[in-house]
Each structure stands twice: as structure tokens, then as C-alpha cells.
Amino acid sequence: MVANGATPLDGYVVVDLSSGIPGAYCTKLLADAGADVVKVEAPEGDPLRHWSASGAAIPAGEDGALFRFLAGAKRGVTADPAITDDVEMVERLLASADAVVWSRDSPLARHDTLTPEAIHRRHPHLVVTSITPFGLNGPWKDRPATEFTLQAWSGGAIGIGRGSQDRAPVHVGGQAGDWVSGAYAAAMTLAFRARAVGDGHGELIDLSMLECQILCLTYYPVTYFEMLGRPWRTERRPTVPGVAEAADGLVAIGCGTAQQWFDLCAMSGHDEWIDEESSLTITEQANLHADDLYEWLRDQKVDDVRDLASAFRIPNSPVGNGENVTSMDHFVERGAFVGSSDGDFVQPAPPYRLSGATLREPAPAPRLGEHTDELRSARTRARPAPTGARVASGLPFEGLRVLDMTTFWAGPSCTHALAMLGAELIHLESTPRPDGTRLIAGIPATEAQWWERSPIFSALNTNKLGLTLDFQTEQGRQLLRRLISTCDVIVENFTPRVIDQIGLDFESVRELRSDIVMLRMPGFGLDGPWRDNPAFAYIIEDASGLSWLTGYPDRNPYEPYSIGDPNAGVHALTALQLALEHRRRTGEGVLVEAAMVDAALNVAAEQVIEHSAYGMLLQRAGNRGPIAAPQNLYQVEGVDEFGREDCWVAVAVATDEQWVALRNAVGRPEWAMDPELDTVAGRRRRHDAIDDRLGAWCRTRTGDQVVETLADAGVPVAKVMQPHRQLEIEQLRHRGFFEELGHPVNPSAPHSTLPINLVAGPGAFHRRPAPLLGEHNHEILRSIGVSDEEIAELEADGVIGTAPAIGGRKTKR
């Protein structure tokens, strides 16, 4: 047994052969949980050591603040791939480790013996997590890419209607795709660690950053389009009201439901805008009255608007950035930010909290090569090769029973990953309150079984069992308690007051099962002034700073309107696995608090770190960014599927060598031969002029022509894809990212999977379609001892059912 308060990953050894944010963030999450992470660098060091997004000067011999945040508590060694003894040292580290995280950017990672495939062959006990733009195999495996061009390929540069039609689409700022790729890499590493604990066999996890971006920056657009025959959005429109100007600053107000729109109408004094019979969507109704709404907001103070919106239970928040977010009352009271180990800057606290299990406090990052001598001379013991059979299914969570009390996107995205990886998921709804994603497909209520036709619900809930149970009734609460006693895990994402009101706080459920793990996913946390505020993805993005870096400098920020939910889901998945590991070691139940906003603050960490370390406030810059110059979206010849001249390509020149390649590919024109453009600093100074010239070159060519010319030359380039066209990307087809799945009500449609390929399987992630409402009522209730006669009575009383009872229910209390 392990002492109470021990870190969940104590004794878990990870070799970090990665370079850049994704691998660094992955291994940071593991190190925070107690893993012994050994960062292996080439003698020149990871470029992150010299990185500052604001361009702040980092003195020679010192490391940048972002590197120190990401590498805290790790050990560091240097190894020269040209020196045999150094390569042998790395080999000894791998033989004695549990996992390795790899990306191809490091010179070490390109050594013949240190490719993921070679490591996996020699060390079958290791979980090897490879992080690459497109995956290790397939026609695009060697294609150059940056986070920016991957956003374009994913559809995330257009998202679900972000921006406005009078300008180019705009990407999500802050290198968001890199951070979510790191979060996914950590979650998948832990998942296959769980399998390795059971059977001793490792795995080669081939993670695609493109697929991570699809899952976190778009909203199942392929399933939506293929199932309904129309895209989610056909044009770019700012969310209304979204981020708006009040009398004394910016404020964020959101309407995610019809009721919230009606309440906003009443709050602003415009009851006449309410039209419950309108055939328009809530977004369309809000756009009709946008000018009047913005005029009203400009006369109000931020605090007054927020107080009023909170009283109406309308999602709202201040607009965070690197300067102001650390002083917001909610984050101060919750201790959401902490000082770095050296006191030089402020950083987010870990993105989740676990009762009884300890996460590490901030600790120093290793200096370059600091532990080389120590680890070179250390006596290590190679881990034994696996001898038994693999788990037959290849699924790490087989045998785990999970009660899924989640709705919409954040919670179900976490539990869906569990279901795809083998857990038994019981998705709980009620007939008065079905899962919200059943209601957002725009299917008329006159259509038969309209509630079963949502592509979003289908995409998020495959492999799950469906149970309806109205726990607002005493009968429902009693049955829920009986069910909980048979479950290993409960996951919920209500506002905290809901769970408290029905008596299902952690202490209460632990009385039903002492070793239960309860994962709670409130928007803003279980305590603090904003505890009970409703939280949708866009409000989380606004509060955390993710919106601040998205958009054009001469306009209010655009809400990404995507990343807040799935980012919370993947962080919660990691937190849950840490809790399960703590339970495995101690036998104790664990309460996990994985607030959506804490996950968002972590992937927006660079803003706070840059401001507190260097006094620099990062700003949105349209489609430019700190990594590459030139970087932008350029219009190309052609008319899109909606009849508009609105076709674009993304180009991002991240190195001087790529600039030479681009210059040659476009024919070595005189404007590109200026020696000042040979360096990134020079290109950044001349960015406007480059945009004009490169834009003119692109404008006379189709997107396919530009991509073919530049990609073949080795330049990161992408077509700006409409999200619902992801299926056309040959790399995704090669990797089987979409799996065709039938459904008893809906037409067969492609469903996205997880952003990984695996050596040992499973061969397919989707094994059954999303459940019909209450489809498995009888099966699940019988499993907890409810007779057929009792089930019939529950149906008659409206406690369970198979059709929505919105607006009323039969009750027997």
C-alpha cells in the first residue's frame, strides 16, 4: 500500500525524447503527477530553452520562462547522436523506463536506433508515444507542417463559423493546437500504461496532431454533414453578443440555449424580441438584433452587466488576458495561479485537483545537461520483457464500469474516450432533461423520433449504454444510489449546486461504495465566487484568455467557440486516470475536480508567463504568429461550395531554409531575393510587403496548385478546409480516423475516432452506435435487481422512458 498523499505516478519513469510544446506539455502533466521524467537533449539543447512568444531577450546561459514552466521537476541529460557512448546511455535509460515520449524535431530522435518503431521493437515493455503532425505512416507522414497549417487542414481555422465574412478566416491564437496535442499525448500514454500494468506489454502510440486539432477545434462536422446533408455553418459570423464593449471595458455574454436568449432579451429590456415560434435558430435571432444589443451594452458597466446576467443565469465572464486574469477574484480565491519555483514568474496551478493524492508543487527545470553525469554512471535495471499474453481486446479500460452523468460536449468527450477504450459506459439522461446535444440538430419536432437524429449526440456517445432515470423523483434517486454502488466511476458536469441538491456529493456516494472515483467537471470549480455560473465553451475561452489572442487587433476578440469543451474533456481524462492509479495503489476512493476553466488556463499559460516574467502582454495578430514569418492566410483562385470567392491557403515559413525553399518554388522573383528576408527578424519587419507579393502569387492559382507547389518544395502549407470536408484528406483516410457506423434511426455515417494509431489494436474504436433514449433501461435496471414488474411501474410513473417529456412528466413521489 502507498501512503495517503503520495503522488499517483511515483516510480513511473518516462524518457522525454521530444522537442517543442506538445511533448513538453505531455511530460509536464506526467511529472506533475510524480513521474520521474528524464529529458534527453542534443548538446545544443531544446529550442524551447531560448523561446519567448513576445520576443523578449533571454540572456545567454539562461532558460526562457516557458521552458522552465514546462520542464519543472524533470531531470535533464544531453547526448550527442554522433557519439556511441551517448547513444548507449540513452539506450540504458530506455531499457529501465516505463514510457518514452518522442517527436522528430530533435537530432537525437532522428538517430536510426531512436525512431519510435526501433525503440518499440527493442523494448516491447515500453509505452512509446510518438507526436507528429500527420502520423508516422501514410502519404503525408513527411509533409512539413506547423500548428498554424494544421489548423487550416483541420477546419479549425474556420471552426464553426468564427470571424466574419468580410475578412479572411482567422485561426485560434496562442498555438492552441500544440497544447491540446500535448494533453492528448498524456492521456493516451496513461491509458496504455494501464493496459501495460495488466499484461506487461507496451504499445506504440502513433499520435497525429492534425487529428487532435480536429477533435478539439471542430464539432464533429463530418458526421453532421454526412448524416443531415448540410454543414453546421455556411458562413462566418461573430457570436452575438460574444465579446462586446461595455462602458468601461470588454465583457463576455453568451447564449447557448433558447432560454438564455429569451432571458437576454428580457435583461436588455427587449421582451418584444422573444419569439418562441420562430423558425430561426437562436444564433440567427441574436444576429437580427445585434446592433441594438451592442448599443445597449455600450451604456452599461462590466460589473453591472455581469451581475444582471448572473441573476438571469446567462453565461458571462470578464475577458481575460495575461495581465488581468491573475487578479480576477475567482481565480485569486481558488489559488488558480502560483509562483514559479524560482519566483521569477506566475504560472497556472495544475489543471485538476485530487483528494488524497498529491500533485507536485512547482519545481526547478534542469539546466542543460545537469544530470548527465549522474545518469551516465547510475546503475539501472532493465525492465523485463513481457512474457504473458496480451489483453485479448487490446482495450485498456475493459472491466471498468462508469456512470456517465454528463451532457453537451465537455463531459461526454471524456467519457467517450473511456468507452472507445473499453470501459462499460452507462450514459444517464432523463426524459424531462435529455442530453442537450440531442436538441441542437435543428430537426423539427414534427419529425418522427426527432430526438434520435442529432449527429452531435451520435458522434459523442458511441459504445455507451443509454439509461433514463428521473432523479428529481424519490424513486429515481433510490435507483440511482443502487446503480452507483455497482460502479467504479461517476462522471458529472452539472453546476455544483445540482449534485449537492440531490445528495450525491462525494461523501454521500462514498458511503455507497468506499473505493469509488468521482470525477466532477464544473465550469468554474466547486468553490469560488463564480462557482454556480453557467459555463459553456465560449465563456471558458473568454475568461481564460483563449479568446484574447483570437482575431484581429482592430476588432474585439473572437471566441474560438470550440476548444473550451474538448480541452476540458481530455484533461479530465488524464485526471481520472491518475485517480484510478491512486485507487489501484491504495484501495482508496478519490474525488477529482477537473474544472473546465482550469484546463483552459493551462493551455493559455504562455500569456500569464510572458507577462509576469517579461512584462509583455501578448496580443492577437490576425493570422500572424510568433513561430513563423511569413505566416498568413492567402486568398486563391476559385469559388467555394457556397458560391463565394472565399478560398484560402495557409502558409507558414518557420525556418530560414523554408524561406529559401519558398523563394525558389515561386520562381525567385526579385522581391524575394532581398538579403534582409534571409532571416526571420527581417521577414517579420517586412511582413506586410511579403503578404502583398505572396498574396498576389497565390491569387492567380487554385488552392491545390499552391499546395502542390509549396509542399513539394518543403514549405508548410495547407488549404483552409471547410470542416465538413475533412473526409477528403487522404492522410485521414489512410489512418482510418473516420469509421463508418450504422444506426437504428439514422443513416450510416463516418464517425471520428481517437487521434492515435496503435500497433496492438484495437482494430476499430466504434463497436456500437450511440444509444437511443432509454434504450438499455431494462438491461441496466435488471442488472441491479429491479424486476420486470417494477420496471413497468417505473415506466408508467414517468421515472424512466424512451421519449422526451420536456415540459412535464408523470410523477409518483
From TrEMBL:
The keyword Transferase applies. GO terms for molecular function: CoA-transferase activity. Keywords: Transferase. Residues 368-377 have a biased composition (Basic and acidic residues). This is CoA transferase. The lineage of its organism: Bacteria, Bacillati, Actinomycetota, Actinomycetes, Mycobacteriales. It comes from Mycolicibacterium arabiense. Signal peptide: none annotated. It comes from the Bacteria. Residues 357-390 are annotated as: Disordered.
